[in-house]
Amino acid sequence: MLETEPQIVDQYIRPGTVRLVYRHLLQLGERSELLAEAAECAADQDRFWELRRAIYARYNQLYGDTLAGVEAAASEIGADPQALRACLDAATHEAAVRADDAAASAEGVRSRPVFVIGEQRIIGAQPFATFQELLDRALGA
After folding, report:
1. Buried b (16+ CB within 10 A) or exposed e, 20-55
2. What is the predicted pLDDT for the residue at 1?
3. For the segment 28-48, what is each residue's pLDDT rounded down to a tens digit?
4. Do the domain assignments include residue 31?
5. For the chain, N or C: smaller number of CB within 10 Å?
6. Average pLDDT rounded to a whole number, residues 68-88
7. Would you tell me how many other CB atoms lie within 10 Å of the CB of residue 127?
């Protein structure tokens, strides 16, 4: 998805043709919740997507001290790590993240990534052409 997502954003989301709804899925328990809340705290600094990309790029490195890794990633992307930590300590986005997880679970989503385009569900990372075909069909193009 790291290669496909930018193409989808450039061709469909940025021009306003489609809307991306992102839901957190807490499939790895507390660690997933921390990462999801950190992404939302980064969103408070207009850095959601940047932190999300940084998390995915170093996901395996975050198994040790996840909080320290997230703070380092936040600093690297230009977010304020102290503000991020204060946001996490206050559990500012905890309820919203848990609500996302509950909504995803209610829709039968058990792993990621999952995309719903119209009535079609795409499970797993797929090439851009797969998304392009379904999006164009849904848009009547």
Report:
1. eeebbbbeeeeebbbbbbbbbbbbebebbbbbbebb
2. 56
3. 888 889 999 999 999 999 999
4. yes
5. C
6. 93
7. 10
What residues contact residue 98 under an 8 Å CB cut-off, 6+ apart? 26, 33
Residues 28 and 84 grouped into a single domain = yes
Residue 104 within any structural domain of the chain = no
pLDDT given at position 114: 87
Name the residue range of residue 118's domain. Answer: 1-21+109-141
> What's the whole-model pTM score?
0.84
- Note whether 52 and 80 are same-domain residues: yes
pLDDT at 46: 96
Provide the Cα torsion 26, 74, 6, 130; round to 10°. -20
Give me the number of domains the chain comprises: 2
